[in-house]
Amino acid sequence: MSVNLAIAASSRRPAPAAVLELLKPITWFPPMWAYGCGVVSSGVALGDRLPEFLGGVLLAGPLVCGMSQAANDWYDRHVDAINEPGRPIPSGRIPGSWGFWIAVALSGVSLGVGGLLGAWAFAATLVGVFFAWAYSAPPLRLKMNGWWGCAATGLCYEGLPWFTGAAVMLGTLPDARIVALAALYAAGAHGIMTLNDFKAVEGDRALGIRSLPVVLGRARAARLACWVMAVPQAVVVALLLVWGHPWHAGVAAALLAAQGLAMRVLLRDPRGKAPWYNATGVSLYVLGMLVSAFAMRAAAQGGAF
Question: Are 296 and 41 in contact (CB under 8 A)?
């Protein structure tokens, strides 16, 4: 009887609404924003490469990020059946092995689109797809370790999309300064991802997931996250000054100072204020990314702020 039910479930097709829920469109914004920063930093006029720009937006959001969400939910399906049974896979709205094959299909489409966008975009896509699977799937399952898991998500949410945006618009390897900014903001995003883990401390502890809030405790993890976010931004400010962009550096420094005030609030109550900081401090962080991208655009165009 159970075998027949399993066959029947696997033969059903999921509704489009369930697939969209599985892909979590709300999570697409960070990589799409970072991709946009890469586009801005390239200095190339949007109208000159509009099809490539649109293809990259599709790649960063619905394809690679959406695929990562599907893969993560597939490998977490047994845990979600206990903690969040209403999700598409444990609820049966994504029946059988559809969740897995959706992730596989989107991986293939992502690599295909990345290839169409150029060699460097394809290389970045290959790295992104690898880490998306490595984060969720055994044997690596990087999410089980807070250091590695946050590093992988920070890279894929901020660094790789920025690099890809610049590479797509330029059609070649971006300037070393652009790569440096992408790497610094990806490093700082490790702190953002650490704060994001605050919402699941109890569940992670019960399931043996060694997130940094579990390993270090919320207070120490919050202090670490603040330093990890702040130091790369301070380096960005210094680099912008060295590269001859004082106005951009001043704005980035002001945004960092505002984050410092928000961090003081966070550290007084890490458990209660982590969601608040994710809505305020992180917004300031990503605005700093855009300011830095405009500095590179000014450099490429030989202009000022």
Answer: yes
Statement: 175-305 belongs to CATH 1.10.8: no
pTM (2 decimals)?
A: 0.92
* pLDDT (tens digit per residue) in 61-117: 999 999 999 999 999 998 888 878 999 999 999 999 999 999 999 999 999 999 999
Looking at domain 15-173, which of 1.10.10.10, 1.10.357.140, 3.20.20.70, 3.40.50.1970 is its CATH number?
1.10.357.140
Residues 270 and 209: their CA atoms lie apart, in Å, by 20
Q: How far is CA 19 from CA 6, 50, 107, 300, in A?
A: 20, 28, 15, 41
